[in-house]
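Appendix C reproduces, verbatim, an entry submitted by the partner laboratory led by Prof. M.T., so that reviewers can inspect both the input and the predicted structure.
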Amino acid sequence: MGKEEKALEVAKGLLPYKDEHPEDLGRLLLLLGRSSRPRHPLEALSYYYEVYSRGRPTDRRVAREEALALLKGLSPSQWREVMSRWEGTFLSVYAALKIAEAYLGEERYEEAEALLKGVEGRAQEEGFGGFFERLWELLLKPKERELTVGLLLPLSGRLASTGEQVLKGALLAAGVFGDRHPRWRVRFLLRDTGSSPQGAVEGFRSLRGEVQAVLGPLSPGEARAVLQEFREGDPLLLILSPLEEARGMEGVLQLSLPLEQEVEDLFLLARDEGLSRFGLFYPRNPYGRRVVRAFQEETWKWGGELVGYFPYKEREMDFGPSLKEIKEGEVMPDALVVAEGDYTLCLLASQVAYYELEGVKLLALRVLDPLKVLGLCREYLEGAVLSTPFYPESKREEVRDFSERFRRTYGTTPGLFEALGWDGLEVLLEAGGKAEGLESLHLYGVTGLRGYLQGEPVGEPFKLLVSDGRFEELP
């Protein structure tokens, strides 16, 4: 028996008495680790990790340094065993980084990416941030990993503040701030629409041949103008305003979930609560007519009855005549449906209370800022159900992650337009700037987007019940 083996045997013989001399524990385990390294590296790591877990600060620092030095020289199969045996520790994180490094050397990019995404947050926490960043740069190094995106947004004019909100979400999704690492290196070309259709068209023309995809425009007027300009061979266009005329256009995507899906979700929820008679308040415009058609289709499909149609003009403030008609009518609806939320909802809710329509439930579509609505008219909304494209306080994991990142970066709570910027860029990143393969995408958008079916977005709108003056998120 050589001197090293004999020293190792003696040291192991002292292990049963380690608790009697805790002051010597670190030195004993470090000796065992050093003695085991040449022939039994994984056994050595177990000794080092015990020092790291239980030893004095000075011993812990030495144990970590020696363990990492040992890890560097192991084989890929041994790194995998380390990942399994010490899952969730600095040892497994470093082993995962070493395997990813090996995969990158073999040009196995997808496997390397999966490993890196799995330890993205922990690498920084465990002190491996620099190593992680070097590997991520290697992952993105091939030219095809760069995505050039045109941002066609109103950054001046009356919609400037809204355009800036979208921009914040897109920049955050691209990993410009913080520790987020998208699968593509993103290069932005920014074009200001000036809040006008003509500005949007000019901006879009300047992006032709320069980008792989365009995010925007934002407003319906700008989007319609660009759709008229759009032609075959143009970059993939992801518009941020829901438009009926964009449906089915090749090379054009929408981010907002179809109105028909939102209506169906809200209608089925109402039916489950035993509501079957509905009064419908809707604006006198194309959107309002779509809401009417959608609700009619749901009643024909699932049963139920629209017992009253109450169109109103833009910026209507007095719903008294309609509510008086309901109160004096022969059939009292179980619920009143408001086609657009926010201020219209608050005005109607307060007047429903004034006319004492007791027992009538309020259902609202397209509430853009539910937190603001609750702050404005909380006292009139008890029992109401609101459908909204974004709820920053949602319990959904993807929303919690986005909201936390946004607050950490910008110091404020995100709203719908910041969420549209985030989700819009996420779709383009997942699709690689191409329309092909959209059907296979599985998304967890913060606006409820889950993917695309025949070019149409599908997903899960947020439904909020007002209970005791607070929102309760419904499944």
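The first helix runs from residue 3 to 14. Additional entries are available on request from the coordinating office.
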